[in-house]
Amino acid sequence: MTQILHRLVYYSRNHISCDDGVFGANVDDILAKSRTNNVRDQITGALLFNAGCFAQVLEGPLENIEAAFERIQQDDRHGDVALLALDPISHRSFPNWAMGFVGTSDFDAERFADIGRASGFDPSRLSGDQIHMLLRDLTIEEEAAA
Ligand code: FAD
What we know:
The chain is of the alpha+beta class. The protein is built from four helices and five strands, in the order E-H-E-E-H-E-E-H-H. The chain is about 45% helix and about 25% strand. A five-stranded mixed β-sheet has the order 4-1-3-2-5, with helices on both faces. A hairpin with a 2-residue loop joins strand 2 (about 45-50) and strand 3 (about 55-60).
């Protein structure tokens, strides 16, 4: 049976020390584990870090993204995890990304800050669509630059 694809978007607050070495090593760890698990689980997506917060889009078979989100919510490297959207989709926005990582350049940071400011940095006022579109644009730019 064909599984209906879904997209999940969430936002969370970083708990990892922002000392450069510590933060970088933890993110490398998260990305390595994510990419292995997500290939296995047919999940694609992107992760953004900025202003002390993570925002992530996961897309794939519903059962698999729900299982991944369950694990992610229990991870003490972040907290205050807020689900912003979980919807059926007709196609993937990140077909080439087992887990892209974006948002670290000053220019990306400013674009994320715009969304944050508009919401008053209140996760309950952030829109899953806004986060999805921003991550999609940033990964398209990364692909073009590569
Ligand atoms: P194992 O790697 O065997 O880990 C077993 C347990 O140890 C898990 O509970 C894990 O959470 C915990 N653990 C492992 N290393 C650390 C560490 N350094 N610090 C604290 N706890 C640790 N996982 C995905 O599969 N896909 C994703 O897209 C994804 N995105 C993430 C985004 C963010 C912002 C964060 C913080 C984590 C993300 N993770 C993702 C990781 C996820 O939270 C789990 O750690 C991972 O899925 C567990 O993989 P595993 O079941 O193979 O367990």
